[in-house]
Amino acid sequence: VVEIPQGASVSKFAELISAQPNEVIKRLFMLGQVLTLTQSMSDELIELVADDMGRKVRVVSPEEEFAVVYHDSDDDLKPRPPVVTVMGHVDHGKTSLLDAIRDTGVAQGEAGGITQHIGASVVSIDGRQITFIDTPGHEAFTAMRARGAQVTDIIVLVVAADDGVMPQTIEAINHARAAGVPIVVAVNKIDKPGANPDRVRQELVSYEVVPEEWGGTNMFVEVSAKKRLHIDDLLETILLQADVLELRANPDALASGFVIEANLDKGRGPVATVLIQRGTLKPGDSLVAGTSYGRVRALVDPRGTHVDAAGPADPVEILGLNSVPVAGDEFRVFEDERDARKLAEERALRERLAAQDAKSHMSLDDLFGRIEEGKQTDLNLIVKADVQGSIEALRDAFEKMDQSEVRINIVHSAVGGITETDVTLAAASDAIIIGFNVRPTGKSKQQAEKEKVDIRLYRVIYQALEEINAARVGLLSPDI
Ligand code: GDP
């Protein structure tokens, strides 16, 4: 079976099935289709012509075509900085701790300066980098994970020493565990009179978060975000935990990773902060992020500086996308800008179709109901048949039918199986698909189910006429 990319040109198709381009053009012509070498073929034509020529083919969508599995050899993998998310119960000091960490990191770091809010920050301690995701809280983390984005290596669980384990503390532990991410506990607010760090340790044992000194696997640090106490200890502990994880990535590849924040900036257009997981991102790179694509016009680091490159575990703002992606979207650089565009546009199309999903499309079963309600005056049909004769016969029969209440329109008819293109067209024009001695090909059946497009299959004309007539007067038996 030869895989043909969706929308392949005539010459590409010929090349892939090792046929003479002229032969393909001739077959197309015999199907009533006049195409030139560079024109792209519909799924249906690809399948029809291939079938005609006795070749087995499968039309692959851009999503399948560009699916990748990254293979990095051991030599390619270089140590990379850890990515950390801060979680914990409300008011236990997540925001204060992130502020304290940034101050400490900036004071130690080379450039200093004002930190921009890009959704992530980078601090350095002992010359090593730690990346923090700035959105504390569980929702952002879970939402990203739900989209398949695993961006965090370590979770810092903030527990206030005067308050102890609270519902969201437990929730955070569960999220961390579900994601398989190790927990470093920051026992915060130790400056407060009522602080009791040991009670926090004891309470956490019931949730299987056990300090190393008690024989467990969790590192604990006592801090005060407010008084800036032991913040470097916490950072060093994070690095120790990172060392245990032996985090590595291949920096010498086309970049890929996840969007962690995105918005539409008045002056700069769509802006997305991405976290790079593999490879190195540079201005000029073409990339796809969810349904957005574009060429990187500029890269901005968390300090607001324009940079020439960003590598594994670096958060960076991207300018130059055509639209705003969603946090949790995967991004990927493509060698060829056209491929990036193709994949993004395909995804955008699927998304639009899925959005229409909510409103169920026309079906024969509810035709009568819609007529009664005065909503339906047209019945749109897409007719596919094994021979042209069936299509003509049906058309003639419709012309003789009483169309005073419902007008029957054949929006598209062709010889051949029911393809994904037919389903897309049916969804767009609220049509029913009728097939004579043909079946849905490939994934079109699944797609029709998803988009709630009614497909009716018949062997003979009169069955179809009977059913349509019955449906018009509300007599269609529900078991058909
Ligand atoms: P979040 O809801 O977890 O982000 O918590 P915040 O960072 O907003 O802190 C909640 C409150 O606790 C604020 O009034 C902080 O000033 C206070 N707070 C945070 N850390 C400390 C600390 O180490 N010591 C004391 N005394 N107060 C703190």
Automatic annotation (TrEMBL):
GO molecular function: GTP binding; GTPase activity; translation initiation factor activity
Subcellular location: Cytoplasm
Purpose: One of the essential components for the initiation of protein synthesis. Protects formylmethionyl-tRNA from spontaneous hydrolysis and promotes its binding to the 30S ribosomal subunits. Also involved in the hydrolysis of GTP during the formation of the 70S ribosomal complex.
Annotated binding of GTP, by residue: 88-95, 134-138, 188-191
Sequence similarity: Belongs to the TRAFAC class translation factor GTPase superfamily. Classic translation factor GTPase family. IF-2 subfamily.
Name of the protein this chain belongs to: Translation initiation factor IF-2
Region of the whole protein represented: 337 to 816 of 915
GO cellular component labels: cytosol
